[in-house]
Amino acid sequence: MDIKDGKKGGEKIADTMNDIFEKNHRLSFNLWYLTDVKSDPPGFSPRLILPKRRSGEIRISEQESKILYCGLLNTLNYYYSIETPTEEVYQQTGKTSQSASSDLSLYGYDGKDFKKVANVEFKAHNPDKLNIQKA
Fold it and tell me: In the list 11, 16, 104, 110, which could disulfide-bond 120, CB 3.0-4.6 Å?
């Protein structure tokens, strides 16, 4: 992605979405082939393994996705930040508004400034929309 390539806004968004789609596809492949500490790794397994809890159960969290995604991003022309604070404040429960954060934010660089192009959220175990909304 080159944000100074003169493309119209819609084409830049489409390019960014295509990049994100491709990275998500590769991430899904890597997650599928993750191995845990109780198993032999398959040939396609990334080097990351799933640990076990004291109870012996395998622990799966959003952190594995985040680590693998960052590795994939290092092959693209994006910059990224982790746990990026939001510009607005939100009130999920209680009476106090506070900043939220995005798990990961993607940025383009035009030679002078960074421009955020997308926020990415990772969630384990398919939570309800109410548990992850930021607006």
Answer: 104
